[in-house]
Design a protein that fits this description.
With 214 residues, this protein is α/β, with parallel strands linked by helices. The chain has a single domain, classed as 2-Layer Sandwich (Nucleotidyltransferase, domain 5), CATH 3.30.420.10. It has 7 helices and 5 strands. A hairpin with an 8-residue loop joins strand 1 and strand 2. The longest helix has 24 residues. It is elongated, with a radius of gyration of 18 Å.
């Protein structure tokens, strides 16, 4: 593939996906994740295949959008995408194989859930998905590719909804508000209550408060 396609910033987020298609790939999936940094809860990945000339006004990097805007775009992406796949790396997996490997496992799961299967992957970040599919990693891809941006919204909304459910299951930690990130409120709750079953026990801010079982 001509790497010149990827050497310059592309202000139009649809252009990146179009250039991949012009190289001969029909079904292009954007892949992104949400939840690498939190102290609790899963990491969630999403993969999205969009049709050519799809109309998705307002879709952008999920971090740039309000929660209300993400929630409004979520069903629109689901409706207009050719395929959407979601993968989840739970806290136990994160602690077992580390957050990067758990993220890649979730991305692989998300891509494998797509039907139809993609011919090419555009992956946010610098780490390739461990699958034998042609792909390209894209730094800040959620701001440069429409399909990656769509995946970022699917992943973020899915994870946020899970954290709201965990807040009901494990009250007192504030999961519904901070979504597991290391806010002052969250750190104080861990110190006072000890970690919950969904905390990542290998993460700083959590592991210091584990009970010594020895």
């Amino acid at each position: 593939m001509n790497l010149e396609l990827f050497t310059h910033d592309i202000p139009d987020p649809t252009m990146f996906d179009r250039r991949i298609r012009s190289a001969g790939y029909g079904l292009v999936a954007g892949v992104d994740e949400a939840g690498r940094g939190p102290l609790a809860g899963p990491v969630v990945a999403a993969a999205v295949i969009l049709p050519e000339d799809v109309d998705l006004p307002g879709v952008d990097d999920s971090k740039k959008l309000s929660e209300a805007r993400r929630e409004a775009l979520y069903p629109l992406i689901r409706e207009r995408a050719l395929a959407v796949g979601v993968g989840i790396g739970n806290p136990e997996l994160i602690d077992e194989i580390n957050i990067l490997q758990a993220t890649l496992a979730a991305m692989r799961q998300a891509v494998e859930a797509l039907a139809p299967s993609p011919e090419f992957l555009l992956v946010d970040g610098i780490s390739a998905v461990p699958l034998p599919i042609p792909q390209r990693t894209v730094k800040k891809g959620d701001s440069r590719s429409l399909s990656i941006a769509a995946a970022s919204i699917i992943a973020k909304v899915t994870r946020d909804r899970l954290m709201v459910e965990y807040d009901r299951r494990y009250p007192g930690y504030g999961f519904a508000s901070h979504k597991g990130y290391g806010s002052a409120e969250h750190l104080a709750a861990i110190a006072a209550r000890g970690p919950s079953p969904i905390h990542r026990t290998t993460f700083r801010g959590v592991k210091e408060h584990l009970k010594d079982e020895g």
